[in-house]
Each structure stands twice: as C-alpha cells, then as structure tokens.
Design goal:
This protein has about 400 residues and is α/β, with parallel strands linked by helices. Helix content is about 50%, strand content about 20%.
Length: about 400
C-alpha cells in the first residue's frame, strides 16, 4: 500500500486525493488534499453542483483527529461557488461539514464524547474550548435532522417542562411515546413556546396526533386543544396522585395549627412528625410507621380520612380500566361528601380533568417516559456543571436523547 493511501486511512479522508504530507514548524502533521472530480464545485449548504465563483480566500486548514501525539490538519483549496438557492458560498468538501474548521471524523468523535462525558473532559481531551464543543454539537444535530424526519410518524406524544437553570429557567420538551426519543425542545414553558412546536409540525401532521400526555398545566392543554382538536389529552396519573398528596398535607397542616392553637403540644408534635408516614405508600411502611398510622386512625379521624382518600385515588391507577373508571366516580362522590375543604376542592379539579384522566386510563398513557427523559436532561446539566445558554442544553439533549448521536469514527 502506498504511503499516501495510508495517510488517507489514518485521517478518515474519503472521496479525496492526498497530494502531499509534511510537518509544519509547530510539529503538526499537515496533509494536503483535493476533492475528487465528482465532489468539486458543489454548494456547501445543499451540495448541488454550481458554477465556480472565485478561488475564495486561498488554502484552508481543517483540524483532524490527532496522529499519535501530534496534531493533524487537512489542507486544501476553498473556492466559492454560485448556488441558485443559497447564493455565493464556499464549496462543499467531502471531509468536513459546511462552516466547520474541523473534519467530519473529528466532530463525530467530539459529539460522541459530549453525549457520554462532561464538556470539560471533552474540551481537555480534544484540545478545544467549551464554546467549540457546543458549536460542534449543534452542527452534528442540525445535519442529522436533515437526514431523518422525527415528525413523520408522530401519533402519541408527551409534553412537559424541565428546569435547566435557577431563576425559573425552563425547557419545554416533547417526546415520541412510540420511540421513547426526545423529538423537540426549546427554551420557555408557556403557550408561545409550545405553539412554535406545532408551527414546525404543520397542520397535516398536527391532524395525525391521536394522543397527548401531560400534567394539568393549562398552557399545554390550551395549545393542544387549538392545534390538535382531534387528539385525546391524557392527564398523567403521577400528577393526579400528587394533587391528592398535597391536599392531604394541607389537611395535616390545618389539624396541626388547630392543635397548636388549643395548646395540645404533644398532638402538634406528633402530627408534625407524621408527614412521611402519611405520604408513604402503605406497603412500604415500617412497623414503627404502621403503628404511628394506627395511632392517627384512633385519635384523628379527619386526618385519617384524608389519608384514605389519598390512598383510594392512588388505587384508581392500579385497577383494570373499567373498575378504575367506576372507582374514580365513586371517589369524587366520597371526596365531595367528606367535608374536608382541600379534598372538596380537589374533587372539583378531578371533575374538570375527569375526561382526560379516563383517557389516560383507557389508553394506558402516562408521562412516566417524559419524567424519565427529564431526569436524563438534569443529569446532562449536572454533568456539564450547568449551562449559560439554553441552546447549548437543547442541542446536547437532542444529541444524547433524540437518536442523533453519531457512532465513534471507525466503529460499526
């Protein structure tokens, strides 16, 4: 095998001819190449053939993967072409993405590392800055989006928000329930942000959405109702049970405050310490906690009634569909007759969302996958020690969780 061919293999150069190899004054390996004839004079954006405009800025270098302990670069002419669609642009080269100063294999390795390690570790290993890592991730994701259409088969989606920074900084995320992949994310958590997703989806694809899972946020349900009126909205069971837990805690606080006002110090102290006993599922209680719960049942009927209401609502989501729907109706009647204001209020909320709750029961759809996705996004943020830019978080989340992460160069 000729030495020139060896350098092409080492640097992952395809569809190009190696002309020369030298070592510059800094000890870096510089490989001079030219694209094959079939790859010349193509638009850098759409890669269609276009007339040559000029020679551009002369020869240009692209950083390649290191060769041993030495940095490596690919050097070639960078002429400009006149594209009918994109105007005057730098001609495409087969070894690098448009507007990049790194080879495709270099960027693919950085992107893979960014999806599996901290940005600081990637920057140190690849000898680039944090900002450069973010730019590479955005280019890799943008190119991957042009190859596949994540919206093509959307039928069942989950929508939620996740905090990416202190100070009420949120991302709106959309998941495809059928693939489990993140398909869209953007900064903000309001109707305007979500409208942008449905604008991108288009009317025809909006009409194909059959099921949407979400929590009870009005900004989500309002937009879904406007843009996908045919879709069944499914309220997430976890959030419904959380409403009951909050109502239970409100009753506990009311009883505790009443005990303090009546100077029942011992009762007030025991109620304050009973919070976790009331919150915990009965099958997970210790013997000591079970004894505490029995004590509450004997000494504090309103609080124990609130606990039973919480547990019965939790049971709704563990039964077969027909039984669950029947029990939900009975629960609403019981809560309304309980005389406990937090649960009377909750019963009214359940009635408002009853159709969506029943849809979730009927179709077996919840936001569990979306919550799992949010946990992974938080891990990405924690691994990066926080981010200053929502676009950087979004790009890295799409790379890691959207199925856009490239394989390591040279690996199948």
């Amino acid at each position: 095998m000729r030495p020139i061919r060896v350098w092409a293999m080492l640097l992952g150069i395809a569809k190009a001819v190696v002309e020369a190899v030298e070592v510059d004054d800094q000890g870096a390996v510089v490989v001079s190449v030219r694209p094959r004839r079939s790859e010349r004079n193509r638009c850098g954006r759409c890669r269609r053939r276009a007339p040559r405009y000029d020679a551009g800025e002369g020869r240009r270098r692209w950083r390649a993967l290191d060769v041993g302990l030495s940095s490596a670069y690919i050097e070639a002419e960078a002429p400009r072409v006149t594209c009918p669609t994109h105007g005057v642009v730098v001609a495409a080269v087969p070894w690098a993405r448009h507007d990049a100063r790194f080879t495709r294999t270099f960027e693919d390795q950085v992107a893979w590392l960014a999806a599996n390690a901290s940005k600081s570790a990637v920057a140190q290993l690849m000898l680039v800055t944090w900002r450069t890592v973010g730019g590479i991730v955005r280019r890799v994701v943008a190119e991957a989006r042009t190859r596949t259409d994540p919206f093509a088969t959307l039928r069942r989606i989950g929508i939620d928000e996740v905090s990416w920074r202190k100070g009420k900084k949120y991302l709106t995320v959309v998941l495809d329930h059928d693939t489990g992949r993140l398909i869209w994310a953007a900064a903000g958590a309001d109707e305007k942000t979500l409208e942008a997703f449905f604008d991108l989806l288009g009317e025809e694809r909006c009409a194909q959405i059959a099921l949407v899972s979400a929590d009870g946020a009005s900004w989500i349900s309002n937009v879904v109702r406007r843009r996908c009126p045919q879709a069944h909205q499914c309220t997430d069971p976890f959030h419904v049970v959380q409403w009951a837990t909050d109502a239970l805690d409100e009753v506990r606080r009311e009883v505790w405050n009443a005990a303090r006002r009546n100077k029942q110090v011992a009762l007030a102290k025991s109620l304050k310490g009973a919070r976790w006993v009331l919150w915990r599922n009965p099958e997970n209680l210790t013997e000591r906690q079970t004894a505490r719960l029995e004590e509450i049942a004997q000494t504090n009927q309103p609080l124990y009634l609130a606990y039973l209401l919480k547990e019965q609502l939790r049971l709704v989501f563990q039964l077969p569909t027909d039984e669950a729907i029947a029990l939900l109706g009975n629960w609403v009647t019981w809560a309304q007759a309980s005389g406990l204001k937090p649960f009377v209020k909750l019963a009214a909320t359940i009635v408002t969302y009853q159709q969506r709750i029943e849809a979730g029961l009927l179709h077996g759809l919840s936001n569990a996958r979306v919550e799992s996705l949010n946990t992974k996004i938080r891990l990405i943020i924690r691994r990066g020690f926080g981010f200053h830019d929502a676009k950087a978080v979004t790009a890295l989340a799409m790379l890691s969780l959207g199925g856009f992460c490239p394989p390591l160069p040279g690996r199948a």
